[in-house]
Amino acid sequence: MTTIVNSPKGDPAVREDTPGATRKPRRPGRIRRLGLPYLLLLPALLLEILVHLLPIAIGFVMAFKELTQLYLRDWGAAPWAGLGNFDVAVDFNEPVGKALLHSFWITCVFTLMSVGLCWLLGTAAAVFMQETFTGRGFLRTLFLVPYALPVYAAVITWAFMFQRDNGLVNHVLHDQLGLADGHPFWLIGDNSFFALLTVSVWKGWPFAFLIVMAGLQNIPKELYEAAAMDGAGIWQQIRRITIPSLRPVNQVLVLVLFLWTFNDFNTPFVLFGRAAPEAADLISVHIYQSSFATWNFGTGAAMSVLLLLFLLLVTGIYLVLTSRGRKVSRG
Amino acid sequence: MASPRSFIWSRRIFLTLLTGFVLLPVYVMISSSLKPLEDVSGKFRWMPSGLTIQPYFDIWTTVPLAKYFWNSLIVAGAATVCSVVIAVFAAYAVSRYQFRGKRVFTVTVLSTQMFPGILFLLPLFLIYVNIGQSTGIALFGSRGGLILTYLTFSLPFSIWMLIGYFESVPRDLDEAAMVDGCGPLKALFRVVVPAAIPGIVAVAVYAFMTAWGEVLFASVLTTDATRTLAVGLQNYSTQNDVYWNQIMAASLVVSIPVVAGFLLLQRYLVAGLTAGAVK
To answer: How close A19 comes to chain B (CA, Å)?
Structure first.
C-alpha cells in the first residue's frame, strides 16, 4: 500500500526535465501509468492468492497424500498416496464411497428442490408485486428479513421450531391441525430432509425475489400496453411477456442459487450439528465430518477435488447450453 | 390499468401466506425470548404464560456473550474496512484502465465464488498452522486469521459490484480532474469515490453481513478466546437444560445490528446486488 501512496511523488522529478524535450518526461509517466493498474490490484491479488488460489493448489496436492493426524504438523512429509484417496472416495462398495455417493445424491435432489422452490416463490412474489398497491413497500422490506438475518440466528430458531416435544411444528401439525400422527422427529431420521428444505427455501427465496424484481424493471411498459390493446388479460401478459423477458435474469439467478445451495454448509451445520442425519447429509457437511472426525485430510481433500470437478463440469455445460439457447432465441 | 378480481385475490392469498411463512420464525424468536424457562421447555404455546425480560439479562452470564460479540464486531468490522478499501482500488483499476491480464483477473476472482468453502478450509487450516510454526505469526486461532479469511470472501462480489458503480460515474469527470493536475489516485478519491458512495455503502453492508454470519471457518479457525457469535451461540445448552429462551434472546440481540443496518441501507444494497445479475 505504501508504494501506491508514494507513486505520485515521482512527479517532481519528471517536471524537472527540460520543457523542450517532450518525449523524455512522457516516458516515466507512461511507465507509471502502465504499472498503476497492477499496483491497485496488488492487495486484492495477494489476498486472493493466499486465501483462495494457494489453498486450492495445496488441496490438490493433499488429495494425493496420505495425510493423517500424524502428519498434520508437517503435511509436506506425508507419504504420497497416488490415486489411493480417490480410490477410497469412489469405491462405492466400501462404506466411505457408499456414504459419499449417498450424500452426493441427497445433495443433488435437495438442491434441485430448493432452487426450484426458491425460484418459484421469488418469481411469484415479484410478479404479484410488480404493480403498486397499498403496503407494497412495507412487504418488500419485510420479505428481505430472512436474507438479512445472520444464518445461525435464523437456523437456530428453526431448530427450536422443529424440536419434537416443545417445537411449534409438531404443536401445529399434531395438536392443532391433527395432521401428524403423534410427535414425529424432525431433526433426526427421514423427516430431516424436509426440515432442511424448509429452512433452505425460507432463507433463499428472498434473493430470487430481489433479482427477479430488478429484472422486471427492465421490461418496457410499452410491451404490456401493446398487449393490453390487443386484448391480452393480465395472466396472458404474465405468461407471454413477463416470463420470457426474465430469461436472461433467470439464467444467472438459477446458476447462482444452484452453486450456493449445493455448497451450503451453514444451514445443515447449525440445524443438525457436526454430524447431519443420513437423510439430510449434504456434501459440504459430509466432507467436513469425514475429514475432521477421522482426521484423514487426504480423503477429505480428494472428495473436495471431486466435488470441484463436478461443479466445474455442471457450470460449464450450463453456460454452453444457455448461451446456445440465447443464440437460438435471438436468431 | 385495473387488474381483474382473480388476479387481486390470488395476490392477496399468496402474499398473506408468504408473509406468514416469513414471519413465523421471527414471531417465535421474539415471543420465546420473553418466556420463562418452564414455557420453552414444555409444550409449545403461542402465548407465553407470563412475560419476562429475565432471559435478556441471563444471556450475558450463561455464556460470555459480550466477548463473542466483541470478537465478531472486531472481525467483521476490520474485514469490512479492509475489503472496501481493497475493492475500491481493484475496481478502479478494472473500470478505468486497459491492461494485460484484466480478463484473467476478473474471471479468476469471480470464479472463486463458486468453489465450496470446504475446499479451502482444510488447506487454509494447514497453511495457517504452518505459518504460525515457521514464522510465529499467529493466524490460526487469532482474530487476524479470521479477518484475513473473511475479507476475501466478500472481495470478489464487492469488486464486481463496484466495477458496475464506477462505470456509471462518467469518465469525463475524473479525466477532467486529472487534466487539472490531480494524480490518478487523487482523482479516484476526490471524484470517483464520492460519486459512487451508494455503491461503497452497499459493498460495506454486504461485507459486514458476510463476516457476521459466517459459520464454517469461524468454527475451525477460532479458539475459546477468539470465538465469534456464530459459534458462541451454540453454547446455551448444558447436559441437562437447553436454555431456549436465552438462545432466542441472544439470537435477537445479535441479529439487531445487521438487520437494522440492512433495512436502513437496503436501497443501496439491493441496487448493487441486482445490477450485476441483471446486466
So the answer is: 17
